[in-house]
Structures are given as structure tokens and as C-alpha cells.
């Protein structure tokens, strides 16, 4: 896996560059993303290890993928990501690994999530038209969208509209592991 300091510096550089490219002030990005100006300063200076939710909000506000924000090097035509280069967000009993992502011609991210029994992750609403599809490899997922819960068992799959808040929850007694793809329309916030 990449050195955490190297990843934090890549995030800092990429957020700053994407914000500058769009001509946004820190205050404007804070308003668009719902992330405080102070947190954005910390991120852009590489002084914090931002959560998945924070990076998702910043990426959505900038019209790029989380993968683009954590990317350490340029993306070649063919990109092979070795397991040692996968970026991991470790939040104790909830772990998310961004396996690979792209933002042209549409924003795509491939995730490997693990949640211990009793744990959950609240996903923020993505931009309009965003879809998520996932399959459960181990355990059982309780997915809540629009206040309605759905149970997805091992080897089952689900596709849902992710432009509203949603929750991934492990109500079972064994570890939950799922693979998820996020597909977001490639419409930047520049218009």
C-alpha cells in the first residue's frame, strides 16, 4: 500500500489543483461540498487524513471521483492497480478499499467494503443520476434508501439510485464484505 503521507500529500495537491482549475475559493468549495472551510484548509495542506465521507463530498462538489483525489500519479491508458497500491480508508470496524476509479467518460469507482457486526456506514447523496450496484461476498447487508430497508444476502446483488442518503449496515453476527461500483454521470459543476 502507498505511504499514508504520500497519499495525504496527493489528496492535498489534487484538491487544490481541482479547486483552482474551477476557479473556486475555499468558501465556495465549502458551500458546494458541505465540508467546513477549516477542514478544507487542513486537507489542502495535507495536515489531516480525511474520511471517506469527506472525500466523497469534496469529490462530488468538484465533479471528480474520489479516485482522482487520492491518485498519486497520472493515469495511463491501461491502469493496473496492484493490491499494494490500493488506497484503504480504515475506520476501525468499517474498512473501505478504493480498488480503482475513473472519471472519463463517466465517473466510475470500484470499492471493496468490510463492516464488522453491528457497524454501519452512512453514504451521502451523490449527484442526480448516480447509481450504485453491489454484491455481497460474505455476510448479509441491510441497505436503507429513502427510509426503506432491504436485506441483501451472500451472493445476491442490488442496483439502486444513490442520489439520496443511504446506509450500509451489518445487522448480522458475522463480518460483512461487499464489492460496490459507483457510476455517476460525467456532468461537472462548472455549468
Explain how this protein is built:
- The protein is α+β, with helices and mostly antiparallel strands.
- 26% of the residues lie in helices and 33% in strands.
- The chain has 5 helices and 10 strands, in the order H-H-H-H-H-E-E-E-E-E-E-E-E-E-E.
- The chain has helices at residues 4-21, 26-33, 37-44, 52-62, 66-70; strands at residues 87-91, 94-102, 107-115, 120-123, 131-138, 141-145, 148-152, 157-161, 166-169, 176-184.
- It has a 6-stranded antiparallel sheet. A 4-stranded antiparallel sheet has the order 4-9-6-7, with no helix packed on it.
- Strand 1 (87-91) and strand 2 form a beta hairpin.
- Helix 2 (26-33) packs across helix 4.
- The protein starts with a helix and ends in a 7-residue tail after the last strand.
- The mean pLDDT is 86.
What is the structure about, briefly put?
The chain has 191 residues and is of the alpha+beta class.
Helix/strand order, N-terminal first: HHHHHEEEEEEEEEE
Class from secondary-structure proportions: alpha+beta
| CA gyration radius, whole angstroms | 16 Å
The main pleated sheet reads as:
6 strands, antiparallel
Assign an overall shape.
globular
Please state the average pLDDT score: 86
Spatially, the strands of the biggest sheet line up as 1-2-3-10-5-8
- Number of strand elements: 10
- Helix content class: 25-40%
Number of helices: 5
Distance between the termini: 37 Å
Portion in strands? 25-35%
Poorly predicted regions are none
